Amino acid sequence: CTGNGICKCRVCECFPNFTGSACDCSLDTTPCMASNGQICNGRGTCECGTCNCTDPKFQGPTCEMCQTCLGVCAEHKDCVQCRAFDKGEKKDTCSQECMHFNMTLVESRDKLPQPGQPDPLSHCKEKDVDDCWFYFTYSVNSNGEASVHVVE
To answer: Rounded to two decimals, what is the model's pTM?
Structure first.
């Protein structure tokens, strides 16, 4: 019973947190926990302590690696730029395309939210249309609401 149960009459009786005919399947989901606190990054199922990624773009031990995905920062750069500074590629379509997050302007980079809060947080540094750096954070709370903090 792979050390995870007791053999009685040629049948394994598994200890708690183990299952399978040889008690070789762990029910512990800790190894499947992604950095955002979700099981398999919300893109797979945890089977015997291993992620089975159901979204084919994502892979890795916790379904967090995506070779073809834009990063969160690059993905939201144009919308943050038009909402915060009224410029960039989406300036003319901003009100139609870029209202999917709550935005807060902050005075300086040290006023941006810091890691350690319950919601997953991305710190972003992107170049605007004038080749200047701008800084923002992007997070999504447990209700699925996106929140952006931008240095003014």
So the answer is: 0.56
